[in-house]
């Protein structure tokens, strides 16, 4: 099955937040993405609310429930008490735990599964017990021991951090090397029972190579590149372009 496309709405929210105005509407653009066949929506409600605001969560949850119940809501965040309360109130289908410091501009590394195993095991157990699928942000390094520790937290999936891959847009040889490493990491994850998502700096141009290296890729979460393309092609056509790049028939 081709990877599901989850549209990350953070960049749209960041643009809206430049003014004290309600546009561009995060919910409306989420609706357009779902109508164009996106399989879900992703948000990262950071403590400073610099892009997605806590007040966005309920309207987006209602959008999916009322108009697109087949789609999934994915909430990303560091598992502090505030984020876990937001998850409990919003009830996303998937929770992606990231090791971000609140001051970080964006997610730029995966978990150290050795150092954070105790924390993650406790949090994943709590979230899984509440019925949420949990994914853990992971570096694209084929480290079997680290991936086994990730699995042993009880997480259902990892999300491969693809920032270094996206950064090789002008170096195809290096991009191939990183894609191969991501593919090997995904192969190990699949072998030990972890589903594999991916996200960060993915584009229409680099997605097909990644999909070739990760045939079992379950989901991609894409925000920055998709939002940039939407300025040119519009949200509806952009989602269709990214779906084709994932291998979906549109």
Mind explaining what this structure looks like?
The chain contains eleven helices and eight strands. The model has no long low-confidence stretch (mean pLDDT 96). The chain has one domain: Aldolase class I (TIM Barrel), CATH 3.20.20.70. Helix content is 46%, strand content 16%. An eight-stranded parallel β-barrel has the order 1-2-3-4-5-6-7-8, surrounded by six helices. β4 (94-97), α5 and β5 form a beta-alpha-beta unit. With 250 residues, the protein is of the alpha/beta class.
What are its keywords?
250 residues, alpha/beta, globular, 8-stranded parallel beta barrel, TIM Barrel
Which SSEs are present, and which pair or pack?
Elements (H helix, E strand, L loop, with lengths): L3 E5 L1 H7 L9 H10 L4 E4 L10 H14 L4 E6 L3 H10 L3 E4 L19 H13 L3 E6 L5 H9 L4 E5 L1 H4 L5 H20 L3 E5 L7 H7 L5 E4 L1 H10 L1 H11 L5
Parallel strand pairs: 1-2, 1-8, 2-3, 3-4, 4-5, 5-6, 6-7, 7-8
Condensed summary:
The protein is an alpha/beta fold and 250 residues long.
SSE pattern: EHHEHEHEHEHEHHEHEHH
What percent strand? 15-25%
What is the number of strand segments? 8
What's the gyration radius in Å?
Answer: 17 Å
CATH topology: TIM Barrel
Kindly give the count of domains: 1
Per CATH, the architecture is Alpha-Beta Barrel
Termini separation comes to 14 Å
Side by side, the strands of the main sheet go: 1-2-3-4-5-6-7-8
* Quaternary status: single chain
């Amino acid at each position: 099955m081709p990877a599901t496309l989850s549209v990350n709405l953070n960049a749209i929210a960041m643009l809206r937040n430049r003014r004290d105005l309600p546009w561009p509407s995060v919910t409306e653009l989420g609706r357009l993405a779902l109508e164009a066949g996106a399989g879900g929506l992703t948000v990262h409600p950071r403590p400073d609310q610099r892009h997605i605001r806590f007040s966005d969560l309920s309207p987006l949850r209602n959008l999916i429930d009322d108009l697109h119940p087949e789609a999934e809501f994915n909430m990303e965040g560091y598992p502090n008490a505030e984020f876990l309360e937001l998850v409990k109130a919003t009830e996303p289908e998937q929770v992606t735990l990231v090791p971000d410091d609140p001051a970080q501009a964006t997610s730029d590394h995966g978990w150290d599964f050795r150092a954070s195993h105790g924390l993650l095991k406790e949090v994943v157990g709590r979230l899984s017990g509440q019925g949420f699928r949990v994914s853990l942000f992971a570096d694209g390094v084929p480290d079997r021991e680290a991936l086994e520790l990730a699995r042993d937290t009880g997480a259902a999936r990892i999300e491969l951090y693809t920032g270094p891959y996206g950064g090789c847009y002008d170096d195809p040889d290096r991009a191939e090397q990183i894609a191969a490493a991501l593919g090997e990491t995904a192969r190990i994850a699949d072998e030990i029972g972890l589903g594999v998502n991916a996200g960060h700096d993915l584009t229409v141009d680099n997605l097909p190579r990644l999909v070739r290296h990760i045939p079992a890729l379950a989901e991609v979460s894409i925000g920055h590149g998709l939002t940039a393309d939407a300025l040119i092609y519009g949200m509806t056509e952009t989602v269709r372009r990214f779906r084709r790049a994932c291998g979906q028939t549109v």
